[in-house]
Amino acid sequence: MPNIKPVSDLRNYNEVLRDIAVGEPVFLTKNGRGRYAIVDMEEYERTQAVLKLMGEIARGEQSGKEKGWTDLAQAEKELGLIHG
User: Fold this and answer.
1) Which residues contact 11 (CB under 8 A, 6 or more apart)?
2) Sheet with 3-6, side-by-side order of all strands
3) What whole-number distance in Å separates Cα of residue 13 and Cα of residue 9?
4) Where are the domains of the chain?
5) Is the pTM of this model over 0.85?
6) Nearest to 39 by CA among 23, 50, 16
7) pLDDT tens digits, one per residue of 56-76
8) How far apart are CA 4 and CA 25, in angstroms?
C-alpha cells in the first residue's frame, strides 16, 4: 500500500524519513494532490542507472536502423574475439 502523507508532515521530517525504505517511497501531497516522492538513495541511483541504460539501448537501436545492423560474426571480428 502506498505511503501517502501531506507535505505539512515535513514539519516533523524525521517521522517521514523513517517511513522511507528501498522500494517503498513516501508520496507527499499538497492541497490534496500528489506533488513529491521521497525515495531511498539506493533506489534513486538504481532508477537513474536504468534510465541511462534504456537511453543507451534506444540510441543503439536507432543507430542500427539508420546505419544497418552488424551480425554476430562481424561484431566478434571487430572486437578481436575471432581472427580472420
Assistant:
1) none
2) 3-6, 26-30, 33-38
3) 7
4) 3-39, 42-78
5) no
6) 23
7) 999 999 999 999 998 899 889
8) 9
Tens-digit pLDDT profile for residues 28-47: 999 999 999 989 899 999 99
Spatial separation of the C-alpha atoms in residues 2 and 22, rounded to whole Å = 13
In 3D space, the residue among 46, 33, 41, 38 whose CA is nearest the CA of residue 6 turns out to be 33
3-39 homologous superfamily:
YefM-like domain (3.40.1620.10)
Distance separating alpha carbons of residues 17 and 28, to the nearest angstrom: 12
CB-CB contact of 43 with 24 (8 Å): no
Q: Which residue has the cell 507535505?
A: 7
- Alpha-carbon gap, residue 42 to 35, rounded angstroms: 21
